[in-house]
What does this fold into?
Amino acid sequence: MKVVGLTKYPPIDNPESLVDLQVATPEPSDRDLLVRVEAISVNPVDTKIRAPKSDVEKEPRILGWDAAGTVEATGPAAKLFRLGDAVYYAGSISRPGTNSEFHLVDKRIAGRKPANLSFAEAAGLPLTSITAWEAIFDRLGVDQFGSDGGKSILIIGGAGGVGSIGIQLAKLAGLRVFATASRPETRVWCEKMGAEYVLDHREPFKPKMVHLGNSEVDFIANFVNTDAYWQAMADLVQPQGRICCINRTSQPLDLNPSARQERSFRLGIHVHSVPIPNAGYAATA
It folds into this structure.
């Protein structure tokens, strides 16, 4: 089968950074689905893993985690799906990726593609949606059934892939949604997703929030840069409020601003459908 892979990690403009290859088509076993890939999406994790370094792979490495396609074959324990079923998923980072004609995925992390979505539309959803869902409902603890209705959330990076889904999930949970964006088109996009107010991320948040009559928020979901907005988040989240970030910090965080008013901070770093072991932690003062 045809794949796009790599054995070296030179700068992206090097012809060997990504190459077309032929490899054997894998055989499904146990709970595997063999999926004929119809569409994939590219996420920041792809660029981070392919970033230049001196490593050399003994076997070609295939990137890609989000995919949508049709089931071509199943393992003996994959009873939930039949040949021809349309599926979508975020695959496991420990297995070859989706930049290939065919791909093996454990049936437990695959879902049936919504009938009203094209393969391309469905392939763009898994990783961003899982990350947003886990941030809003698992890390921040928002009640998905609406008991937190009327509370407020600030979503930093509202126009990105995760932010776009996050705004919609927060609205479904009944939250009052503030989001950040800067360009006119991204501000319009955030409003289209359901944000009630859009803040310019290049300007201080606090004065604008005070002007809007919401000087503090119950929740903050930072989908952009933990370091850059740490103090701004500490200034905005209310006592007993919660903060979730999905990006690694470049230096140790000063938790004192949060500790003074009993705020909870959760760092959930994702590169696929589950957190990297030991990469996420929760700290409550």
